[in-house]
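Table S2 (text version). Query chain:
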Amino acid sequence: SLLAGFAHLEVGHDRLFGFLVVAGTTLDTDQSAHLKGIEDPQHPGLSTGRIDAAVDLRLDSVFFEFGGGYRLLELALPQRREPFTLEALAGGRYYYFWTRVHATAATKILGLPGGPRAVEQAVAGGGDVDWVDPFVGGRFTVPLTDDIQVSCRADIGGFGAGSDLAWSIVSGLKYAIPWEPLGIHPWFAL
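Corresponding structure-token output:
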């Protein structure tokens, strides 16, 4: 099973703005297999029966991005309510990963003097890791209509603080929702 969520909040005044992004995923999967038995060439007649194996894996990740920006350029376009914008960004990203794995295998050893013997083995492990990366970047937004905009953002970070190098490029569409609760103009983004 896979569960994922994402939220982006951005507030601004004049040319300054701040943002917070939260994303998380949970992946939980299990697989089982029935494997053919193994024969020991060093000991003829000694072998295993069918091997029943199962693995259960869970991986959780959380991502927080925080930062701010400054609008460097704002160009009015003919017949458009919203302008073309170019913005500088800076901030940080916090990453957290946690994983757990549990595996089992069961079979019978055949050819022993006392008869077949059942054998089962289980192993489990897990761990977590987290780090914070600074980043810098830019973003531009182009209005396609008065209510639809396309935006593209690129950034680079890490610089040895948490990871050696991290970068991202994100593009999307924004739609102006025709509803202004408390005087706030919300956008829906894809």
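Notes on Table S2: The chain has a mean pLDDT of 92. Residues 16 and 129 are 33 Å apart (CA to CA).
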